[in-house]
Amino acid sequence: MIEYESLAQANRALMEELEAAASRVIRSGWYILGNEVSSFEAEFAAFAESKHCISVANGLDALILSIEALDLPTGSEIMVASNTYIATILAILRAGHKPVLVEPERETFNIDPERLPAALTRSTQAICVTHLFGKACRMTEIAAFASEHGLRVIEDCAQSHGARYDGKLTGTFGIAGCFSFYPTKNLGALGDAGAIVTDDDEFADRLRHMRNYGSKKKYENVYIGVNSRLDEMQAAFLRVKLRSLGQVTEHKRALADIYFANLPKWLAQPLRRPAEYDVFHIFGIRHPARDELRQWLLDNGVKTEIHYPIAPHRQKAMQGILSGDYPIADELHATELSLPISAGHSGDEIERVCSLLAALPEKLKLAA
Ligand SMILES: *Cc1c(COP(=O)(O)O)cnc(C)c1O
């Protein structure tokens, strides 16, 4: 069986260093906002080519706190992709604003810059882009549109650690880049973790207060904050894993090259644009009979995933909140299939997946 991914295998490869990190934290007697957190923040800021990194408890909090820190009028409209992971939309709602869904490009799964003008109203204050599957959105166009209309840009980088557009890192185009280090992400902790990167001193200072009860000086509260701190243990693990993120990314890109060289041409596969440095968090193909294809692959020894089975506007929680028709999101949610592409997979395994897909039964040879 070819697994979709194995976290145990990935982390076992770093066992000694992770155990040493855990032991160091336990022995230190200091578990919240200490040296591991400040060191990780400095190291991740350097990686992210950003002036500041503010670590938080998870990726959703990174988004909520960043949007709150913009200090927009309550009920502002914020544009967001209609097919993003639900967290991006939840964050806009949690911050007290109105998500305005914009359809993605079918070929990249990312928000379509050409559809931004039609979604613009007098209440629009920001665009929250998601670099889905590890592929950068068309940030040059999006940033130009935002600056022309005085909109703030927040980037959901939960799937795009190290991805670039026109040579520039995702997370550095807008005022804030929001990262998740959920265990399955390209940079994953051994629990929940997240961070915000920014070049803006004031914004960073506000976030440092907000993640810790609105306080930077003990018992002095400047903002109505929350408790969303990264703990020393996760920071220590992340410092270990950050050191091999470059290798993980290169490995995933090499596996993607095997897919591109060997997948049958009729199969709808990720679009590669010269401007993008894609980190392939997910390798998503599209197929009109996705569920049958998935079952057939499973019967033939390959596990896959679906990102994601239900479009945000179809979620029960969003009834009466997200209205309108989003046919591209519907289509993508009905046709997407994620093939194995993890740090633990070998080139041979990916070649086997390709051979299987080249030998599909006639009834599954359908182009999306
Ligand atoms: C994982 C993810 C998040 C949320 O991260 P958590 O750490 O689980 O809160 C947000 N946006 C996207 C696109 C994600 O993939």
Automatic annotation (TrEMBL):
Q: What is its EC number?
A: 2.6.1.-
User: Where would you find the membrane-spanning parts of this chain?
Assistant: none
Which one GO biological process term can you cite for this protein? polysaccharide biosynthetic process
Q: Which GO terms describe its molecular function?
A: pyridoxal phosphate binding; transaminase activity
Query: Can you tell me which residues form the catalytic site?
Result: 185 (proton acceptor)
Where is the PTM N6-(pyridoxal phosphate)lysine found along the chain?
A: 185
User: What name does this protein carry?
Assistant: DegT/DnrJ/EryC1/StrS family aminotransferase
A Pfam family of this chain? DegT_DnrJ_EryC1
Would you identify the family this protein belongs to, as annotated?
Belongs to the DegT/DnrJ/EryC1 family.
The cross-references to InterPro entries, in alphabetical order and at most eight, read: DegT/StrS_aminotransferase, PyrdxlP-dep_Trfase, PyrdxlP-dep_Trfase_major, PyrdxlP-dep_Trfase_small
What's in the keyword line of the UniProt record? Answer: Aminotransferase, Pyridoxal phosphate, Transferase
